[in-house]
């Protein structure tokens, strides 16, 4: 017993790989990594721009603004608003997490995350290149982009602002150890 | 305040930059893009540059895990850790008391039954140590049927039920069990303990809420531990304390606006650790009032309580529907092996893919399934009545006799001597032990009854109880102390002799057993 207690101060520092090692692939977020899923984003943006572009009374500025916003809102709903998983993975390890936090088991700067971050930025840059936004439209466009980008930053991982996405009763296991 | 530079100077500088840049190949495209984007607004171009820099930074960052707090250890620390590490011995050295315990374990020369013969002796002893409540273990008819089954089906099923382990007898047994307890459907598991271990985590997951009795058995404790749910404990069989906790949680819910949909109250029907019977009507009232589901472990009450042994619901004359998840065992009263869970069809079907003990274990050997089936048949037909009334009568005789003993002998206390339960715990009184037991310095008896005994004191208590067990055995009564895995129990009860009444004994034999226990207790206690 005495020996165990002596080593405990160091042993507690060693990360418990068992707890961090994710044995199961999360089917809720795994498909996002598929190249087909990436390509769908581009098709979706082209489709939006096309639809808003052929409506006769809509100006170029408005059609780009709508494309920007509809795409950003879609991303927000898909990756930052819906929480949890319909599947039973690692005894609820992903309960209360957004899709963005679930992608690649919570790892940061993975290819999929890079793609999904860069895409709305390029969409925005493309839109200001092809239009002559006035000040208000310009700020409307960039506001949507900023909200989407903040939600994606690594420092926002598992961080909840203004009570958004907070799930009560979903505590981490560290907070109530057994026995 | 200095004058701002003239616009012409800026324009000239800009023209210079463009001229120089245009010398680079491909720069024309870039310049055209910047000119288009510029649109007379330096802020926009600055923002564009910032966004591009952000993209470059984001793309160049390396992948990492945000919750991976790796602490680098230097060589000295690593060496220290390695030096400190002592592998746990495969067979730990036994303490003197553990060796004594092993040496005193009874060895049978006959088969297991309600009256087995011990090695080195000729006459049978009265077995009050096994959970053979109905006397189905050692029943000659059942044994013969079991041998026939063995010839037909072989020994094991060699596969989990979901693959090729399901036999006709398993489906038969599931149907009969469901009919017997009065549930829609039942599912059988191949081992009694793992039934509880599988069923509880099958429904309650991380983030869910469990409200448990403090006096639950080892199996339920472990089942709860696996769920990773939030757990609250209420005082053993104390419905007021349960209601207090339920009210507290309701208030917390309202304050935090949380919505936990899966909430369970978990108890046992007949507590193996105390012999108490759970007050089902109150539990049902509370769970309906506060909207919980009830998980009831009837491992010991199945086959024992109720007019025909259907369990706790029948004992109180309540419909089995009120128990949402009923866990039963076939290892105890039925004298077979395995366990079952009974309830509504949806709950049972869920377990066929999610109950880990069902999915990942080979199914119950046919011989044991048939043994359980035959036991159920006995309970169902005319043979069941006499067995149940014999069990009731013997339980009452035992409870009455032992209560008389505690009246004349203040050194012992009883738990479970309510006349209903065939399980009765005979404990040493803490007050008596404090004044009469020769305790060493590190062994002391804490005040009150709620603080668990220190290990050293436990051993002293156990030694006295073992003397009672030995004394009773010399008079032909086989008793046992209740044994626990001390470091795994949440709050371990005081040491006790666990008396298990059996229907296979006659009233006279039970009376003789009571007398034997009384004599043994009086003799051992008198020596202190």
Automatic annotation (TrEMBL), chain A:
Localization per Swiss-Prot or TrEMBL: Membrane
Keyword Oxidoreductase in annotation: no
InterPro entries: ORMDL
Main location: membrane
Chain ranges passing through the membrane: 138-155
Keywords recorded for this protein, A-Z: Membrane, Transmembrane, Transmembrane helix
GO cellular component annotations of the record: endoplasmic reticulum membrane
The keyword Repeat appears for this protein: no
Top-level taxon in the UniProt lineage: Eukaryota
Recorded topology in the membrane: Multi-pass membrane protein
Annotated protein name in UniProt: ORMDL family-domain-containing protein
Organism of origin: Dimargaris cristalligena
Automatic annotation (TrEMBL), chain B:
Enzyme class: transferase
Record EC number: 2.3.1.50
Residues covered by the Aminotransferase class I/classII large domain: 124-517
InterPro entries for this protein: Aminotransferase_I/II_large, AON_synthase_class-II, PyrdxlP-dep_Trfase, PyrdxlP-dep_Trfase_major, PyrdxlP-dep_Trfase_small
Gene3D superfamilies: Aspartate Aminotransferase, domain 1, Type I PLP-dependent aspartate aminotransferase-like (Major domain)
One of the record's GO molecular function terms: pyridoxal phosphate binding
Pathway: Sphingolipid metabolism; Lipid metabolism; sphingolipid metabolism
Family that this chain belongs to: Belongs to the class-II pyridoxal-phosphate-dependent aminotransferase family.
Full protein name: serine C-palmitoyltransferase
Organism the protein comes from: Dimargaris cristalligena
